[in-house]
Specification:
Elements (H helix, E strand, L loop, with lengths): L3 E4 L6 H12 L4 E5 L5 H6 L2 E3 L5 H11 L3 E4 L5 H6 L1 H21 L4 E3 L2 E2 L23 H20 L3 E2 L1 E3 L1 E3 L12 H12 L1 E4 L7 E5 H13 L11 E2 L3 E3 L1 H11 L4 E4 L4 H6 L8 H7 L7 H15 L3
Parallel strand pairs: 1-2, 1-4, 2-3, 4-5, 5-7, 6-8, 8-12, 9-11, 10-14
Antiparallel strand pairs: 11-13
Bound molecules: serine.
Serine binds next to loops.
Length: 316
């Protein structure tokens, strides 16, 4: 019987993934953990622990207490915020992962999930249809930590047989929990501002194309890779997952179809340079081949759900 620990359960991904895992494995078999108090839905539906991912001893204690067999380690500082505090962000992103990898080795856990990101790519990477393997020269703290993390999970796999599964998430769009401090977050904010003010001032320029994915597709991809047969997984660092590719102007037009008075203007800030160093679209053929990656949502389908759900939140 699998017992699962989700570290970072209160974040954008964790708050949805935890509940999905509880549906699959049973509420009491999925332990949610975060450095801060999680929402009521998480705390009331199953076990919850306050855990600082940097305190490896405490994480190990929780693993032993519940007999954990699999960890989803999601706690991290995103690209925009990490640029404001480079060294502390490096510590959080790296130390947390190394601690969990070592727990997996020592306590012989069955499997780990750790997310990488399109931020592993950099200015010398081919920007369109970016291949699984190519030049990677990230120039953000977040991207450097993700690339280093990819090397560490491959190392722990080869040297100690630790089975870590990983995907390079594109920008993730969701309505349950807002992202915090990422470069792709405009694609979440724009829906909130559309509902609240019918206007959005975008921090990226009009034609900045980036790879993006709606949360239900990201959760499905995460669960699918964790359930794939180990011998089918040929990539030991992290798999490309592409989703869609769009720019702020595309989202604007998609919202405008449903909200004709919606307006937008553009005031690019420091995150423009980060976006410009990332791919515009991703080739994920390897994921489709190795573990049958598939998606449901395109931009218009996602816009429909986002506008409906965000409106519900604000009783509009
Ligand atoms: N969404 C992340 C960010 O913008 C990229 O993985 O930081």
């Amino acid at each position: 019987m699998d017992k699962i620990l989700v570290i970072g359960c209160a974040g954008q991904i964790g708050s949805e993934l935890t509940l999905e895992l509880r549906k699959m494995y049973g509420d009491s078999n999925v332990v949610a953990a975060d450095i801060r108090q999680a929402g009521e839905d998480i705390c009331q539906s199953g076990p919850f622990e306050i855990v600082n991912a940097l305190e490896t001893d405490k994480v190990a204690e929780v693993v032993k207490k519940y007999g954990i067999t699999q960890i989803y380690h999601l706690a991290a500082i995103l690209s925009g915020n990490a640029e404001k505090k480079p060294l502390p962000s490096w510590d959080i992103n790296m130390k947390g992962l190394l601690g969990v990898l070592d727990i997996a080795r020592e306590l012989k856990l069955k499997r780990l999930f750790w997310p990488s990101s399109i931020a592993v790519f950099g200015p010398s990477t081919p920007t369109k249809n970016t291949p699984q393997q190519c030049v990677m020269d990230p120039n953000t703290v977040y991207g450097i930590s993700k690339l280093a993390g990819e090397r560490w999970i491959a190392y722990y796999n080869k040297r100690y047989g630790v089975d870590t599964r990983s995907v390079r998430y594109p920008g993730l769009i969701s309505y349950k929990t807002e992202a915090g401090g990422g470069t792709t977050d405009y694609a979440v904010e724009i829906y909130y501002e559309a509902i609240k003010n019918h206007h959005y001032t975008c921090f990226l320029s009009e034609k900045t194309y980036l790879p993006m994915m709606f949360m239900p597709d990201a959760i499905k991809a995460t669960i699918d890779i964790m359930q794939a047969d180990a011998d089918k997984l040929t990539v030991k660092e992290s798999y490309n997952i592409g989703g869609m590719s769009f720019c702020p102007d595309d989202v604007f037009k998609s919202i405008k179809k449903q909200m004709p008075d919606f307006t937008i203007d553009y005031e690019p800030d420091f995150r423009q340079a980060i976006a410009d160093s990332w791919p515009q679209s991703i080739n994920d053929d390897q994921s489709k081949k190795d573990w049958n990656l598939s998606y449901v949502y395109d931009l218009d389908k996602m816009t429909e759900v986002m506008l409906k759900e965000v409106a519900k939140k604000f009783n509009k």
